[in-house]
Every structure is written in structure tokens, then in C-alpha cells.
Amino acid sequence: MNAPKPPATTFSCRICGGSSLHPFLDLGKMPIANAFLSCAQLSHPEYTFQLQAGFCDSCHMVQLLEAVDPDILFHDHYAYFSSISRVMDDHFGRLASSIGAEILYDERLPVVEIGANDGILLQKLAAYSPRAIGIEPSANVAAVAREKGLHIVSEFFDTELAASLRAEHCPAQLVIGANVLCHIPDLNGVARALETLLDAEGVFIFEDPYLLEIMTQLAYDQIYDEHVYYFSVTSLCRLFEKHGLRIFRVEPIPVHGGSMRVYGCRSACSRATEPSVTAQLAAESEYGLALLQTYSAFAERVQQSRTSLRELLQRLQVDGARVVGYAASSKGTVILNYCGIGSDMLEYVCDNTPSKHGLFTPGTRIPIVPIDRFAADYPDYAFVLAWNHLNEIASKEQTFREQGGRFITHIPTARIV
Ligand code: DWN
Ligand code: SAH
Ligand code: ZN
User: Fold this and answer.
1) Pocket lining for ligand 1, CB < 6 angstroms
2) What Å distances lie between residue 290 and 72, 214, 232, 278, 285, CA to CA?
3) 321-379: per-residue pLDDT in tens?
4) Could you give the count of Cα atoms lying within 13 Å of 382 in the half-sphere of its Cβ?
5) Is the bond preceding residue 412 a cis peptide, omega within 30 degrees?
6) Given the CA of residue 351, which atom of ligand 1 is nearest to it?
7) How many Å lie between the centroid of ligand 3 and the Cα of residue 100?
8) Closest ligand 2 atom number to CA of residue 78
9) What residue ranges define each of the domains in the chain, with the CATH number in brackets?
10) What backbone phi and psi angles, to 5 degrees, belong to 296?
């Protein structure tokens, strides 16, 4: 096997090429967020990179400085299966039905979903379109989608693939992607691919974690290898404009701790740009997203958040409390490594994904166990490492609370809830 490619470091912006990419946050040496370790892997050194974010004061795109090769992140044993959450399933159900009612206009034209994962959204879109195609490079999750009878192309979406999809299937009436656009290093390439693939009146829809929410909630754990970019409406509008595309609507959505859904089309499309776009641009400017000092202030608050979490966990440790982690999320890898939390503080991490059981958390090497283990012998505290799913987890774990158990969350600062 070839040695894995080292991360590519940039101090010039990946989007505009400008040299004014200002590093503002350094979360330290980090393993791959989703590279959970088997027993055999514990004796090998882990792949690591420097997790640093920077702000481009030319085009305003916030991005990682070091980007890990996508082949190292997305492969035939990708750890994340989208269908683990009932709340996300409902969320995508509502999205598909609004698309069926308002966006689709010609059933002869395909609907293309980028980053279809296990088919959670595509299956719902297929009820509204006989020509729904999913693009999913991670072969194991793509196989789950195929088992649902879905049409999946197991490749990375790029300009070449867009050209071959158009040639084979006609231009698309919809290109959609949830939690995937921010994962793709070559976003200018994605924009060119959209120009190639979209029908004249076609629409694209993307939803990703929203920079303003990350900043206000102090959700620094959204920053990790897979998320190369942290979007504002300002940075996305600028990116798409360069490529003859236009955002015509934006909608804040509550999932994954606060995301933004953007709707776009070709600049010349008949759809009017709606007031939501200008309103959001104004809100971003008012918050100070254009100013470097806003980002340095965020970095300071991140350090304070780490201190508050460590103090809380150390206090519980001194009191002799039993504390476990709940949900082996990608974000959890960042929290545990950045805050220096290991198996001395958390007995185990429980998770509802069967393929994660028996593995260990990257870097910190805490065992991952099924939820049954949690239910069999409740600890005193469960630190929720997927705080975005806190409501869903709390509603499943009512017995834990009734028996005196408490959850810990660290967003925006550490506290018992
Ligand atoms: O952007 C991404 C999002 C959509 O998904 C990807 N880059 C990777 C992944 O991020 P994550 O791993 O932080 O995802 P979640 O959805 O915040 O975390 C899910 C984890 O939580 C899974 O391992 C399953 C677990 N979980 C659980 O054990 N019980 C989740 C729920 C809802 C539960 O009830
Ligand atoms: N859309 C799902 C999955 C998000 S996880 C959801 O919202 O839950 C990100 C997914 O994007 C992974 O399944 C990964 O394999 C896929 N992905 C990463 N880069 C991609 C690319 N260039 N083209 C298409 N899919 C990609
Ligand atoms: Zn830039």
C-alpha cells in the first residue's frame, strides 16, 4: 500500500487565490475525526494534521489551513451513517416534500444528490422524481443506499462527473447536497460542475453548518478535517457569482446545531432573489463577520470553553462520579483531543452505530460500546459528544434521568443539564 498523502497546507485562499488568509484558531495536532481505531490499530501511530482555521479578508471564506486528502477521509469503511437519527430522517422528509411541491418542474429531468450517504434523503426525493441519482464516494454507505433500490454513482462529484452525468441523463432540474459542500476542497470546481449540470431553470440547494451559529454558540467542534469550509451567505454569494450562479433564497435551519440552507440557480434564471438573502447579508455584516477581530475574539472564547469543560470534568472526577461519553461523533474527536479528555475521565463512549462498537476514539483511545451497556448500569453523568442531538438523546434516555442521571453539554460553556 502507498503511504498516505501528507495534508496540503495553504496560506493562500482556496477560493479567490488571495494571499490574505489569516490563521485565527489552532486546535492543535488532531487525528482524523472519523478514524475510529480497532484493537490492532492501537499499536500503530495515527495519521495526524494541524487543525487550524483561517479567514480570507478578500472573499471572506473561512477555511482550514491544512486539508487532508479526501481519499483518506471517504472510503469503503466510512464511519458515519446518516440514518442514525430519527430527527434527521424527519428533517429530510420535510425537505423532500417541500421540494416536490415547489422546486421540481419537469419529471424528465434528473435530480442529483451529492453526498447521498446511506440514501436518507435520496429515498424521499425518489418519491417525487423517477430520475433521482445519488453521488456517494464512500463505498460502504453507498452500498446501503443501493440496497434501498436507489441509483448511486460511487464517485467524488467534480467537473468531469458533472459532464458525464449531463451527457448520459440530460441537464438536472435539481442538484442538492446536505452537509457535503463544505467537505469539498475544490469549490470552484463544484461551481463549474453546477454550471455544466444544471438546466437553464434548474435549482441547487445546499445545507451546511452556518458560520454565524458556530461563532455565536462557540461550536468550535464543527471545525475538523471533513469540514474544509465554514460558510457565511456572504462568502457563498461571492463564490457562486464568479461562476454565473446566484443564491436566490436562504433559510436558517435548526439541525446539526444550526445550519443554513441556500437555494441557487443560474444568474439568468427567471427566479427572483428573495429578501431573505439581503437580510442575512446585513445580519452577517452587523455581527462583524467581515472583521478579523471577530475571529480572534472567537478563538479566545474557545479557550475559555475548554477551561470550563476541563474544570467541570475534573471536579466530578474528584467527587468520584462515574462519567461516560454519549455518541462517538466526529465533533467528539475534536472536543476530546483539544480538551485533553481521555479514558481517565470518561469510562467509555456509547453510540448507536453498530460498526463503531469495539473500536476506540481517535487520539484519546476511549472504548466505544453499544447503548445497551449504558442502559445496563447507568453512570452518574453522560457527556453528550453530539450536542446537536441532545433533545433526541434526552428523549430516548428518560429512564436515565428518572434514576438521577444527568447530561453534560459543553456548548456554549460546560454545564450539567
Ligand atoms: O457533516 C457531517 C455530519 C452530517 O455527520 C459529517 N462530516 C460527519 C458526521 O458528523 P458527526 O459524526 O459529528 O455526526 P452527528 O450526527 O452529530 O453524530 C452522530 C453520532 O451520534 C453517531 O455516531 C451516532 C450517535 N448517536 C447516538 O448514539 N444516539 C446519534 C443519535 C441521534 C442517537 O440517538
Ligand atoms: N448528506 C448526508 C451525509 C453527510 S456526510 C447527511 O447530511 O447526513 C458527507 C458525505 O459526503 C459522506 O457520505 C461522504 O462520503 C460524501 N462526500 C464527500 N466528498 C464528496 C464529493 N466530492 N462528492 C460527493 N460526495 C462526497
Ligand atoms: Zn479568498
Assistant:
1) 80, 84-85, 179, 226, 256, 327-331, 351-353, 356, 386, 388-389, 392-393, 396
2) 33, 15, 10, 15, 6
3) 999 999 999 999 999 999 999 999 999 999 999 999 999 999 999 999 999 999 999 99
4) 29
5) yes
6) 28
7) 35
8) 15
9) 82-290 (3.40.50.150), 308-416 (3.40.50.720)
10) -70, -35
